[in-house]
Automatic annotation (TrEMBL):
Residue intervals of the STAS domain: 536-739
InterPro entries: S04_transporter_CS (IPR018045), SLC26A/SulP_dom (IPR011547), SLC26A/SulP_fam (IPR001902), STAS_dom (IPR002645), STAS_dom_sf (IPR036513)
Transmembrane segments: 87-107, 113-130, 137-155, 187-213, 220-241, 270-286, 344-366, 386-409, 421-443, 449-473, 480-505
Any Pfam family matching the protein: Sulfate_transp
Entries under PANTHER family matching the protein: SULFATE TRANSPORTER
Keyword entries, A-Z: Membrane, Transmembrane, Transmembrane helix
Organism: Electrophorus electricus (Electric eel)
SUPFAM superfamilies: SpoIIaa-like
Record's protein name: STAS domain-containing protein
Subcellular location: Membrane
Membrane topology: Multi-pass membrane protein
């Protein structure tokens, strides 16, 4: 038993700490407040409608600021307090963002210069439309990999092989790769997908579908991003080792890629491998130093910038590409490349992947934005963020960039170096602009394996999420299963199908948990109005003759049968079986009376001669005739009780050989305080359950039912002459006190002393 509950109960049972609240017993009459509630809702709707029709300058300005949040914080921008920090943060973040753009372009399978565009254009629109003041907008490895997977699927190398000018050993023409045509097609796919992602996000923002991201729970996102990090690492192996690898996507693509790497491992370029390994080690070590000395360092060490500059200089001085065959960037022109329009014909083939990538990118962005908004006591509008990222992606795709979201590491740099607003983001965009316009050609000797090493080194945080597994196992095993299942699904099936599979599994766990809810039999803490689960507390006692049943989940078509079984288990008998057995016994008694084998005495029914009755054995016979009679009776037929004018004490031994199950309660209280909704099928079945108990003389009461539930029950025709509103009580204790007054003149509960002498006129109904 939890310690704090023990202390709570012990203190309540302490005589010195007792207190008593005297009030009437409250029942609930649903029909008394339905009309009043409807009137209030109608008035509220009219007020909102009349208010929405009013137009004023202030209202128009508020609407404009809602869609253009920059107008809300820019006029109050504190230059002296905020600008220095924004400048430092913008310069630091800009350098990192530019290099990450170059590196993440390898994941999209396009030229590195387009990674710079992806790090530049989205910032401009988000500055105007975004609601987060700390996000660093730009490429992110997971979303880049999702776009890159589609690019490889629609534009593999095999589609661009053409006859060359040379012949093979057998006189066959050697096929060569048309790299220019391949790169053009891949760029068209990437930018078209980015535009379509933006269109989906804008559409979701317009129809207020930002809530959809709530279905992506933290365990689901953790398993997905960890699997995506592994996919990113595997996709970079061909660049780090500089070996030929086939283009794979979909089921088991990760394992096929690893197989190709090991198959061609002898072709490894040692220069590229050594450069990549050194980059990974240096970057990870320096990042650990940045994290450890975060409070003492004025700004984090931009190690990616130093590594890139050093490698570009060494590669240029030693001509690593010419002398050692190292793979270099080699194509970063100065200035902007004229954009090409998106290929609308591709939309039908990339729609599904675009939608899933758009949801994932938004989920990542909004989760990071909420973290820093809570830290700085700011607010983030989820639907406006959808519009902001949607328009940013459309704008970015139109200028040959690829999908943009945010990254926790980059945002952490911007916030930790003093960034206060999106002015820091604008300055980081200026740094990327300088690289595009002036410094781009200087990075042409940069090795691709170094960029791949930077990508891998920045994935440490994602891989560290594996440590969440034992924590989740201790806290909630279901969440742990979601994490592991999603991760394995994404590794085996690919990111798109794996994410969908993980989402289905997650929703299935929710359905299963509501389909098999926790049900309990409640007992009373003596001298209190507290009712707790009998299994969890020792000081809880069950009230004689009364069973308190509690369901802790919504009641709907999927769990109503389970609820029936739980009620049977908790009360200890099946009301339908009791009803049938009693009818069968009454019919036999009636026949014996007619034959003169039974007679009435002061002690009840007495057989004229021994009948050989054995009522101890448990009889499991099923009488089809009785079943038919029961079904007819449930539909409104005549009960056999009306045919036999005999009063029988069902607790005593019967003079016939029919084993009637014992009913050791006279009242059943159903605690619905945790029930959030019921559907039509559940209401119909629940009504049938109540009637089954009422037929055998067990009174049924419903306690703690929410007003919304009562209104829905009223709308579904739940109440009638048998199942009436008098069954509804405000709390379990109200129902218990009412039952005690109805069944006994002496109340045992001291809290009921004040109402013990009242009559029915004193039992008031609350008009809520």
């Amino acid at each position: 038993v939890p310690g704090h509950y023990v202390e709570l109960l012990s203190s309540m049972m302490d005589v010195q700490n007792q207190y008593c609240v005297s009030r009437p017993i409250y029942s609930i009459r649903a029909f008394e407040h339905v009309h009043e509630r409807q009137i209030r809702e109608t008035k509220s709707l009219k007020e909102r409608f009349s208010g929405s029709c009013r137009c004023s300058t202030k209202r128009v300005w508020n609407i404009v600021k809602m869609y253009f949040p920059v107008l809300g914080w820019l006029p109050i921008y504190q230059i002296k307090q905020w600008l220095p920090g924004d400048i430092v943060a913008g310069i630091t973040t800009g350098m990192v963002c530019a290099l990450q753009g170059l590196a993440y372009s390898l994941l999209v399978n396009v030229a590195p210069v387009y990674g710079l565009y992806a790090a530049f254009f989205p910032i401009l629109t988000y500055f105007i439309l975004g609601t987060s003041r700390h996000l660093s907008v730009g490429p992110f490895p997971v979303t880049c990999l999702m776009v890159g997977a589609v690019v490889l699927t629609l534009a593999p190398d095999s589609n661009f092989m053409q006859p060359g000018n040379t012949t093979g050993v057998n006189g066959t023409t050697v096929m060569v790769l048309n790299a220019a045509a391949r790169d053009t097609q891949r760029l068209a796919i990437a930018m078209s997908m980015t535009v379509l992602i933006g269109v989906f996000q804008v559409a979701m923002g317009v129809v207020q579908l930002g809530f959809l991201v709530r279905y992506l729970s933290d365990p689901l996102v953790g398993g997905f991003t960890t699997a995506a990090a592994l996919q990113v690492v595997v996709s970079q192996l061909k660049i780090i080792f500089n070996v030929p690898v086939g283009n794979y996507n979909g089921i088991l693509s990760l394992f096929y890629t690893i197989g190709d790497v090991f198959k061609n491992i002898k072709q490894t370029n040692l220069v590229d491998l050594v450069a990549a390994v050194l980059t990974i080690i240096v970057v990870m070590v320096v990042k650990e130093i940045n994290a450890k000395f975060q409070k003492t360092l004025p700004v984090p060490i931009p190690i990616e910038v130093f590594v890139t500059i050093i490698d570009a200089g060494v590669s240029y001085a030693l001509n690593l590409s010419g002398h050692y065959g190292a793979g270099v960037v080699n194509t970063i022109p100065r200035g902007f490349i004229p954009p090409q329009p998106p290929d609308v014909s591709l939309f039908s083939s990339i729609a599904g992947s675009s939608f899933s990538t758009g949801v994932v990118s938004y989920a990542i962005a909004i989760s990071v934005a909420k973290v820093y908004a809570a830290k700085h006591e700011l607010t983030v509008d989820g639907n406006q963020e959808l519009l902001a990222f949607g328009i940013s992606n459309i704008f970015c795709g139109a200028f040959s960039g690829f999908v943009a979201t945010t990254a926790l590491s980059r945002t952490a740099i911007q916030e930790s170096t003093g960034g206060k607003t999106q002015v820091a983001g604008l300055i980081s965009a200026l740094m990327v602009f300088i690289v595009i316009m002036a410094l781009g050609p200087l990075l042409q000797p940069l090795q691709k394996s170094v960029l791949g090493g930077i990508v891998v080194a920045n994935l440490k945080g994602m891989f560290m999420q594996v440590l969440d597994i034992p924590i989740l196992w201790r806290k909630n095993k279901t969440d742990c299963f979601i994490w592991v299942f999603t991760c394995i699904s994404c590794i085996v099936l690919g990111l798109d199908i794996g994410l969908l599979t993980g989402l289905v599994f997650e929703l299935a766990t929710v359905v299963i948990r509501t389909q098999f809810p926790s049900c309990a039999s409640l007992g009373n803490a003596p001298s209190t109005d507290i009712y707790k689960n009998m299994k969890d507390y020792k000081a809880i006692t069950e009230i004689p003759g009364i069973k308190v049943f509690k369901c802790t989940a919504p009641i709907y078509f999927a769990n109503i049968e389970y609820l029936k079984d739980q009620i049977k288990h908790k009360v200890g008998f099946d009301a339908v079986r009791v009803f049938k057995k009693r009818n069968k016994a009454l019919k036999k008694i009636h026949r014996l009376i007619k034959k003169g084998k039974l007679k009435f005495t002061e002690n009840g029914l007495v057989p004229v001669e021994p009948l050989g009755v054995d009522n101890e054995a448990f009889e499991r016979e099923q009488d089809p005739e009785l079943v038919k009679e029961f079904e007819q009776d449930m539909k409104g037929g005549t009960s056999p009780n009306t045919e036999v004018e005999v009063q029988v004490d069902w607790t005593s031994v019967l003079p016939v050989n029919v084993n009637v199950p014992k009913v050791n309660i006279h009242s059943l209280v159903m605690d619905f305080s945790a029930v959030s909704f019921l559907d039509v099928m559940a209401a119909k079945s629940l009504k049938l359950i109540l009637k089954e108990f009422l037929r055998i003389g067990v009174s049924v009461y419903i306690a703690g039912c929410d007003d919304e539930i009562i209104m829905k029950l009223e709308a579904m025709g739940f109440f009638d002459e048998v199942v009436n509103r008098g069954m509804l009580f405000l709390s379990v204790h109200d129902a218990i006190l009412y039952i005690k007054m109805e069944t006994s003149d002496n109340l045992d509960d001291p809290m009921a002393d004040k109402v013990g002498g009242t009559d029915n006129d004193n039992i008031r109904h609350s008009q809520l």
